Give the backbone structure.
Amino acid sequence: MPRILILYYSASGNTRKMAEAVAEGIRAVGGVEVDVKYYVNVEDLAGYDAIIVGAPTYNHNMPLEISMVFREASARNVDLKGKIGAAFGSYGWSGEAPNLVLEIMERKFEMQVIRPPLLVRYAPGPADLEKCKALGMEIANRALSK
Ligand SMILES: Cc1cc2nc3c(=O)[nH]c(=O)nc-3n(C[C@H](O)[C@H](O)[C@H](O)COP(=O)(O)O)c2cc1C
């Protein structure tokens, strides 16, 4: 069964709500295993078929908690080549973080990224949560057809 990881950071809960909706979409498709985590042991990343990162934008960047995961994975030569990558996140006014995540996934780890990333301004409303679910469904379907 394909395994999907949703790894997120959220200081005020907006990206967390998005993460839960993405997971709901994945579970609705079924036939895949999904883990929703705030912290991951980088060695465990290699065991997933798809890695979805939820990153709110703080100070025009992704949170340190997320960038450290990539730095550590790189330092330990964790092989993520060919895995499905996606990113989402809440933002206030500039929203760079999810795009920065996708760039690292693609350039550094040679993952197959899904573009564009899903951005939501501040708290996700019902329509935003539907988009999050749709993203989850798309990723689950891609993981199943790999
Ligand atoms: C100290 C601070 C810095 C922020 N910097 C940015 C920024 O550079 N660009 C942006 O788009 N939003 C910025 N924001 C807004 C957050 O991205 C926004 O509040 C988002 O909803 C937080 O998501 P979270 O609840 O998942 O932590 C900042 C917020 C705070 C409190």
Summary: The pocket of flavin mononucleotide is lined by residues 10-15, 56-60, 90-95, 122 (CB under 6 Å).
